[in-house]
Structures are given as C-alpha cells and as structure tokens.
C-alpha cells in the first residue's frame, strides 16, 4: 500500500481494464452458470442499501423489515403460512443453516439420551450440491449416500429401507438438481420423514423460482412437482440470485415456522439485537430489499413469462441438438440440458477455446447447459454451430 493515495480516475481506469477481462451475460457465451443478468431496478436498490448490514438489524430496522417481507413472499410461494427464514449469501449458506439446525436437534437428543448416533446421520442423494460436502466436513455428519434411479432421481426404496434399518436424523431431497434439473419425489420423501419423525430439507436453490411458475405444457406426467411446505418439509433453500434476477449475493433459507430459530440462534451481546442465526455475521442489506422488490415488481405473471421463455429456449436447444445428431441425457425437466459426450471434458475445453463456456456433469458423462434469461435463440444457434465444429475436428 502506497503512502499517498492514487487519483480516482486512474483507479477507475485500472478497474475497467480488469472488468473487460470478465465475460458478460448479454454476450451469450455463458452457458453453464445458474446466474444471469439482474433486473435494472436492483442496481438502484443496491446503491440505496449499500451501507446497510443485516447482521446488526437493530441499526437498520427498515432493511430488516424488507428481509422479513421478502421471506414472507418466498414462503407464500412455498405454500407456507408462518415461515421463518433469512436472505443469505447463497445456496451454500442456506444449506449449511439447514444442516446446522439438524445438528442442533441431534445435540438436544444426545443431551437427553434419546439417540445412539455418535454423529448426526443423514440420507442424501449422490446428486446433492457440493455445499453438503462442506457441511459434512465442518459439522461432523455421517452421510449415507442414496443412489439414483434410471430417471436420475433419488431411490425412494433405498431411503425407506435405510430409515427402517438405521436411526436417521435428516433426509435431503433436491428440487432441481444442479447437473440435470431433475426433481426428487419430495412427496414420497415427506411421507417417509413424517412416518419416522425425521427432519426433511429440500434444496430448491435453482428450482424454487422455476417449478412454481411452470406452465402445464412444460410438465411431464410421470414427475411429481410438489416440494414445498404443503408437505412434511422442514426447510427449503431457494436462491433469488439464480432464477430470481437479483444481484449476488442473494440466497434464501426458509423454515416451516419460527420454532426452528431456537436451534440456530447464538448469543451476540455486542449487537443491538443480541441473537443471531445466520452463518455469516455481517450481511448485505440489499439482498432482502432486492428480493422483495423483484417479487413485487414481476408478480406471478411476470415471473411465469420469464420462466416460459427460458423453457421455450430450452426445448429449442433440445430440438436443435437432436437435429444435429446429439443425444440428451434426459428430456429437459427444467431449463437445464445435459448432452451425452464420452469426451465431455475435452469438448468443454475446446468450446472454451472458441469462446463458449459450458460446464460438465458428475453423475454422467455429459456437457451441462443452463438456459438462463440472458440466453437467446441466436446464442443457441451459435452454440450448436460451435459444438458441431468441435466434433468435426
């Protein structure tokens, strides 16, 4: 750090140089991200709430009210009545908060000699997001990994047999898997969890703001789309900075009701409110404000139109792939397409060399494409052209 400061103009010019190195969503080159352009209104909101800190809500009472309103709106989408939650940094923090809740419920049982488990034990699908690996390492969980069936959803029979044979503290289901967009049968997981009094968490970080807005023409008859608090679900992860058009960081964690807060709060005596529940201490205030504003601005109708456009483009991509001899792993369920490819890692690298950024799957040899709002049909046509060229060479 220099003794004297640098001129603002010089600093901004330097920053602009580095910013130009970044990809931009509107260029149509980003095909593997679950984030996209934000709505223009959110840029104004970020500026308005830039200095607010939800980690100390007693100082920012209006911002805290907006977070509560945002949680209430998200909760209503999830068919909840008195939902408790927070707008957090993202799906990772949200999932960690759910795990922490399970851990502390287990600790209470341990104190009362109501469990024989040396660590809390969870049944989790192999398709779960990598944030659960972080949670296992940080909080000493024992995971039992459930296999997936031919349709790439969690094996319900395996879960049922496991909870009948072992003492289980939690079950995780996914509503919109990161790799394929598949939806686990949460209704059946809910029946299992209720029968055995087991905590059920649903990771709907991506699907939470897609599934409720799917028009009937996009739904498949053999899929259960129910995943919310109308079932026996205890908590849900839902990310406004994915399909909710909000700026990063802006994730969401919802609990069925306020009682779960007792498993999350820690003492924070030097803050204006002396209890804190989130993983992060200092938290941006604009996340809650943006979430509330976008949900109010769009309404269900506006969000439905955005989801429908993404689904139309997803089906367009799927059609173009088949016309050009490519095979998808499954017919798209949400706006995610997985393309079978034995050389998927090499193909991914070669596309990157051509300025097209896709990602890869872990559960199957495939390229992974997410059709977010910034992707247009001309971007898809260019992607198909580049993919065909890569496969020729």
TrEMBL record:
Protein known as: Probable L-tyrosine/L-aspartate decarboxylase
InterPro entries from the UniProt entry: GrpII_AminoAcid_Decarb, MfnA, PyrdxlP-dep_de-COase, PyrdxlP-dep_Trfase, PyrdxlP-dep_Trfase_major, PyrdxlP-dep_Trfase_small, Pyridoxal-P_BS
Annotated family: Belongs to the group II decarboxylase family. MfnA subfamily.
GO molecular function, a single term: tyrosine decarboxylase activity
Organism encoding this protein: Methanocaldococcus vulcanius (strain ATCC 700851 / DSM 12094 / M7)
Residues modified as N6-(pyridoxal phosphate)lysine: 242
Function: Catalyzes the decarboxylation of L-tyrosine to produce tyramine for methanofuran biosynthesis. Can also catalyze the decarboxylation of L-aspartate to produce beta-alanine for coenzyme A (CoA) biosynthesis.
Cofactor(s) essential for the protein: pyridoxal 5'-phosphate
Lineage, top ranks: Archaea, Methanobacteriati, Methanobacteriota, Methanomada group, Methanococci
Reactions catalysed: L-tyrosine + H(+) = tyramine + CO2; L-aspartate + H(+) = beta-alanine + CO2
NCBIfam families referenced in this protein's UniProt entry, alphabetically: tyr_de_CO2_Arch (TIGR03812)
Record has Lyase as a keyword: yes
Lyase as UniProt keyword: yes
Keywords from the named record: Decarboxylase, Lyase, Pyridoxal phosphate
GO biological process: carboxylic acid metabolic process; coenzyme A biosynthetic process; methanofuran biosynthetic process
């Amino acid at each position: 750090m220099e003794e004297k400061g640098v001129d603002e103009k010089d600093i901004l010019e330097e920053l602009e140089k580095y910013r130009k190195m970044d990809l931009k969503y509107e260029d149509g080159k980003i095909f593997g991200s679950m984030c996209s352009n934000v709505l223009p209104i959110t840029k104004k909101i970020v500026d308005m709430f830039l200095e607010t800190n939800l980690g100390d809500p007693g100082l920012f009472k209006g911002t805290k009210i907006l977070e509560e309103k945002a949680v209430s709106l998200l909760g209503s989408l999830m068919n909840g009545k008195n939902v408790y939650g927070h707008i957090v940094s993202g799906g990772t923090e949200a999932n960690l908060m759910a795990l922490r809740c399970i851990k502390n419920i287990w600790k209470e049982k341990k104190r009362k000699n109501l469990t024989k488990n040396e660590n809390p034990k969870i049944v989790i699908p192999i398709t779960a997001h990598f944030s659960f690996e972080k949670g296992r390492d940080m909080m000493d969980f024992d995971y039992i990994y459930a296999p997936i069936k031919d349709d790439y959803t969690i094996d319900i029979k395996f879960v049922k047999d496991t909870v009948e044979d072992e003492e289980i503290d939690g079950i995780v289901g996914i509503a919109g898997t990161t790799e394929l967009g598949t939806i686990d049968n949460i209704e059946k997981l809910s029946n299992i969890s209720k029968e055995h009094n087991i905590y059920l968490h649903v990771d709907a970080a991506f699907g939470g703001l897609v599934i409720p807005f799917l028009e009937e023409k996009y739904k498949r008859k053999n899929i259960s789309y129910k995943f919310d608090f109308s079932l026996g679900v205890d908590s849900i992860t839902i990310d406004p900075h994915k399909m909710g058009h909000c700026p990063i960081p802006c994730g969401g964690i919802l609990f069925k009701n306020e009682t779960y807060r007792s498993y999350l709060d820690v003492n924070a005596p030097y803050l204006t409110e002396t209890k804190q529940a989130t993983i992060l201490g200092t938290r941006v205030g604009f996340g809650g404000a943006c979430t509330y504003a976008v949900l109010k601005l769009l309404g269900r109708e506006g969000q439905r139109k955005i989801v429908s456009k993404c689904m139309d483009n997803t089906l367009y991509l799927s059609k173009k792939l088949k016309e050009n001899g490519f095979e998808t792993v499954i017919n798209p369920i949400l706006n995610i397409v997985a393309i079978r490819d034995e050389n998927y890692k090499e193909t991914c690298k070669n596309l990157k060399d051509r300025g097209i950024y896709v990602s890869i799957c872990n559960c199957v040899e495939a390229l992974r494409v997410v059709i977010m709002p910034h992707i247009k049909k001309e971007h898809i046509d260019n992607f198909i052209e580049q993919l065909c060229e890569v496969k020729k060479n």
